[in-house]
Amino acid sequence: GRSGKDSTRGDKMKDRQLTANFRLKEFSKKDLTPYQECHVEMLAKKLQYLRDILNLGYAKNGKMVSIQITSGVRTMEDYQRLLAKGYHPSKTSDHFCGVQIDGKPTLGAADIRVKNCSLTLRQVFEKLVELDINGGLTFGQIIYEKNPATGAEWIHLGNSWNEIFASETVRECINKTRKKYLISLDNGVTFKEFGK
Fold first, then answer.
1. C-beta separation of 141 from 109 below 8 A
2. HEC readout, 60-117
3. What is the four-CA torsion angle of 167, 169, 173, 174, rounded to 10 degrees?
4. Residue 77 contacts by C-beta under 8 Å, 6 or more apart in sequence?
5. What CA–CA distance (Å, rounded) separates 52 from 114?
């Protein structure tokens, strides 16, 4: 995340500062609905908090820890492009942010990499799981992913259903079909529950 002022970039999408280090344009290349922006802003605040935590004890070489968003809000075109590149995106991914896909709500997600941090990305994932379990920073899904062919790795973070949906019935329905902590070491083909 970076800092800066709110702006409109000519005929391109509107942009605004969401937190001290994250801007709307880092999550989407297209204009979003106010509903989608709300979900993105919720995620940006969580990422800012994570960045602040990592900077307290894990900054490396005198530089500040930064979080790079490698994938934010997706469209169906993005989904098709990822499939064509050999990735295995979910048809009901929270990356669709606020759009109902196959009868399921999507709540906003980002794939991230962390720079200038003394922790490996896998260790950052484990720290996130610990923070989530202890209630320090909650997410709907936390997934460590790695592409064995390229070595690329990232963490998928989705908004918390419990924070978005007040209805116990809706939460129970969603939580029956989704596993919360996952690891994929084959570019999203298969997933294993973390800790099991």
1. yes
2. CCCCCCEEEEEECCCCHHHHHHHHHCCCCCCCCCHHHCCCCECCECCCCEEEEEEECE
3. 10
4. none
5. 12
Q: Are 154 and 120 in contact (CB under 8 A)?
A: no
pLDDT, tens digit, 9 for 90 and up, residues 121-171 = 999 999 999 999 999 899 999 999 999 999 999 999 999 888 877 646 555
Computed from CA positions of residues 32, 132, 155, 118, in that sequence, does the dihedral angle turn out positive or negative? Answer: positive
Q: How many residues does the chain have?
A: 196
Query: Would you say the C-alpha torsion 151, 128, 46, 120 has a positive or negative sign?
Result: negative
pTM, 2 dp:
0.81
Q: Is 121 strand, coil or helix? A: helix
